[in-house]
User: What shape does this take?
Amino acid sequence: GAFRMMCYCLLGCANLARAIARICEFHQVFYYGQMDMRLVREGESARFEIVVSPRARAVDCGAGTAVPMSSAAAACALSMWHRFFGWLVGHPLPLDRVELSGSPPANLARYRQLFNCELQFGVAIPAFVFPADFLAYPLVHNEDSLRDFLRTAPYQLLTMPADPGKQRLVDTAGRIDRFRRKYAAEPAPTS
Assistant: This one.
């Protein structure tokens, strides 16, 4: 329900910059400071950040230590927002860079296929960077096309390539699910 209502709030936005600003406002109100989104302009680049509060991302590990958003979770969230922004303007957004927390994963090639841009790890705030020119792109959807989108959302965000020739998020998710099922069925090693 929350994503649906947010989408309807975007219909009156003149361009992508205003839509992202409204998304950021929506998250501030809806998530009560647990998760914020920020759009930062850096010269000719725009940077979309997902800021998760330490309280929200804390996982009780017995010692009460906070664990930052995993690079896999951040990659999934950034990929979904990236594709959603492209859907709003009817054109895939080219990415200059994706920044993720943590160390580079063993399957770094999959991340490269997913984003097809420079990847940076070890950052405090997950983000993606794209050309700021796209902020002026008008939104191309109306209430009818939004209703069609919402009937199956977020499915199409998983299946749409971020750019022609890029890997779809669902391809990566399918491999992860097959891996999880394969190893979940095996007995745990004993010492």
Q: What stands out?
A: Confidence is low (pLDDT under 50) at residues 59-66, 164-191. DSSP finds eight helices and five strands in the chain. The longest helix spans residues 71-89. The longest strand covers residues 35-42.
